[in-house]
Input
Amino acid sequence: MLSTNNTEVRVGPAAWDELGDELRAVRTEVFIHEQGVAPELEWDGEDAVSHHFVATTVEHPPRVVGTARLMRTGQIGRMAVLKNFRRMGIGRTLLDQAVEFALASGFARIFLHAQTHAREFYEKAGFRAADAGEFVEANIPHVEMEFVQSPRSGSSE
Output
């Protein structure tokens, strides 16, 4: 459990068929409204067959404030944390849980497409940029990164 600014947040696995509406709301806010990603790019049809992770406030009623997913290919993505809950360690905890799940599940390769401004965040979590260089996805510069080592603790993201 994470606790900052009098807010406690729990991070764990999530079933899309149970929490899909709440996860969709977080991603809509972050990717579509804040970053201008086109809805048809965000909703790629992979959610029902992916593993999801959720950050939820402990207050009553609980509120979903962050999400991440792990696809069948080993790709981690759709990591989103609502603006008022950033810099509390939620993103890092979501990422660590996705990596731990992928490792425990025997994925041969764990990778992600990082927005270039977030590259250092992912490097601190054990990812390294692949040789492919930068590319544009959803009109945002990205770099492909692969998991190469166990996550280190302590992130400010």
In short: Strands lie at 2-4, 7-14, 51-57, 64-70, 75-81, 111-115, 127-137, 140-147. Residues 2-109 form a domain with the Aminopeptidase fold (CATH 3.40.630.30).
